[in-house]
Automatic annotation (TrEMBL):
This is Beta-glucosidase. Residues 480-608 form the PA14 domain. Keywords: Hydrolase, Signal. Pfam families: Fn3-like, Glyco_hydro_3, Glyco_hydro_3_C, PA14. The keyword Nucleus does not apply. SMART domains: Fn3_like, PA14. Belongs to the glycosyl hydrolase 3 family. Residues 1-37 form the signal peptide.
Amino acid sequence: MTMKHRHKMKALTKGIKHALVVSLSASMLISTSSSFAQSDGMNTNQIHALSVLSQSEQQRLQTRLSKVEAEIERLLPQLTLEEKVSLVHAGGKFHIPAIERLNIHEMWMSDGPHGVRYEIDRNSWAPAGWTNDYSTYLPPLTAVAASWDPNMASLHGNVLGAEARHRNKDLILGPGVNLARLPLYGRNFEYMGEDPYLAAALVVPTVKAIQANDVGATVKHYALNTQELNRTGVNAKPDERTLREVYLPAFEAAVKEANVYAIMGAYNEFRGTNANQSHHLIKTILKGEWGYEGVLLTDWNVDINTYDAAMNGLDIEMGTDVASYDEYFLATPLLNMIKAGKVPESELDDKVRRILRVQLSIGMMDKQRLSGERNTQAHRNDARTIATNGVVLLKNDGKVLPLDAQKVSNILVLGPNADKRHGFGGGSSEVKALYEISPLDGLKAKFKQAGKNVNIQHVRPASSQFMPIPNDYLTTRHWTGTPSWQINYYADKQLNQLTSESWIADPQFDAKNQPQNVEIKANIKPVESGKHTLKILADGDVSLAVNDKILVNKKANPANIIEYVIDLTADETYAIRLIYQGQQQVTLGWETPNSLYNDEAEYLAAAQNADAVLYFGGLSHADDRESIDRPDMKLPGQQDEIINKLLAVNPNTVVFIIGGSAVEMPWADKANAIAWGWYGGMEAGHAYSDILFGDANPNGKMPITLPKSLQDTAPIALNDYNETESLYSEGVFIGYRWFEQQKIAPAFPFGHGLSYSQFSYDNIKLSKSTMAEGGTMTITADITNTSGIDGAEVAQLYLHDVKASVSRPQKELKGFDKIWLKAGETGQVSFTLTQRDLSFWDINSNDWLAEAGKFTVMLGSSVEDIRLQKSFNYQK
């Protein structure tokens, strides 16, 4: 075992399962498995499934897999046509039917990608009302991507797989690998960043670890689901090179390297038809070129039709919004088409074979199937480990961090995320956790455990600007679980012609100089009884009603705030309805008997007097959520104003951002200490405290670029973000590639992340000066921890094609290696390039092409911090 692998092993927690440890020697296991395959008829994809298992588990799984194909051919002829059709569509909200006479069980699926979702009613979206459906809330996959560590991906997948099995699930609907092309995208927090290589490298260990638990992973959403704006109708139209180089590699790796059992299609259209019935995506690429043998299933309620879905490779239809399961496109309509000879029964047989293959491979008919485990201390430890390794230290001027726990006695904690919990929100990824440690909880626990009496003062800073009613009082929930206001748009002033419905986080609306008739409504619950002053700041006609009683109905002028005093009773629910008609802005706020918020003088005085000021800001699932994109890239709730004022009185204020998408940080130059924690799962507060006080050394790196401005990003700059079609006009220049091509300086670059340690890079070596066609190139370098603190560095390998016949990025990530080093220690990192790494997708030959010529490898700590480089020739 190499030095770098020894250090990786030391870094893992005790919660890592034996299967994951063994994965460090996966190549040896694959070799062993290959010898089994020669005698037992297993295919190459099945061999991959063995690569993360212990020897005894390999033998168990090898025996099962060796019988799968024969069992499929035994069962298939016994199925009636009607029974076969019943298997290719839902028989409930989250399962397909059983065929009991053949011992074919119901196949159950569950959201989501970072924790098994609470139980949904069998035939509706209502919660089933179980009291034992709690699960470990893991940090979302953005945190895994920020770790740049396959071991964290394996940990994540192992917990997810084990808990899904314990809940008797057969497919877990994750991981997600769509790329963060647009910072506004509502589901960025679920995915693995902006780079195709990084996502591909991390999805493989995630899938293997899930499936080692006898559960099928479901990689999603295939393909090009990069916006929630009209997600069911927007037409994705990238050119073929962009499709192949950027948006498919993670799916390809999941199929070819991890043998993923299931893939979920995207909501969006692809070149004019729904992605779930695209011949090019499914028949040509997925099941043709890649040789995929698993199932393709829909997301819930997608826009397909019977013939195209049946003929172009869709295997399972889930969640269609019709009255009966028999009305699904792949139900009675498919049965009738087959009987009429319009769809060959052979197409149906292929789908059934795939479904049976998955069921048999995960042991649904196997009495020795693993039983899983859930809510264990080991899983909680793993959640904490992943969260800790995902924290990115963006800035640490003057070594503000780590804080010295022995020297601080008065800590001021502020910000909307200081005491917020995020697990139960965001959409299909919501998790019902036994608990969730907030940042404030984590700080209190740290000092309580140490037996040190520290004054931790928590305040809620109020903005000097007119603020909307905080969602602390809101009882209305968007279906994603997020406190939200419903907004309805009408074509007429009488509000008779409803044109669209949506949801917003706060009762404020900007018409952007377009005449609008909108209705904003929600239910609120006061926390104190007494007089509440409702306030409206608007330019236009407004009407305000509480419990259907109209209180205000007049034309508003922004020079005057409209006020109405009303007596409200604590814990009673009130229906608020605000109507705005105009083309400017409206905001509904209020004053309560005793505000939850501290005024400016109070919180700034506290900041001046504190030993440490910790501002936990960022986003929540009112912003990052399925079905809705963010309206802009700004921090919500006047956070920028408050951060600026805190930094003015205390420049050592630590700004700790929580969120899954990029935000603008106009105050970044003034701040000395900035960290990014994503959504940290149920152990978030403990992980964040460990980082802030030096019990853990930050080692995460940004898996996305943090732009200075939304206008700097490619989709916005190219006017390629709308409801109808997305042309992917930037081509292969996604994320950091765009910023380098356009020479735009981001706030913080892709791959950036500081440590409490410092590292030097030396002695780069190439295995040869010329790489031949079909050959490989090995690159090594020495990394030295030059500090007095043990830590980890992620060395990143970028490749540049010096002279190409097509436009290629200045740098393309082609390798990374996280190395753990003690103070003063030197270790070696190693990377291997293949011909595919040198290639681009050639539209003339419709294949990968590596052109002869000079290539430069660049090794660094981020895409902008290149420490070493060296060139070689590629010869055909």
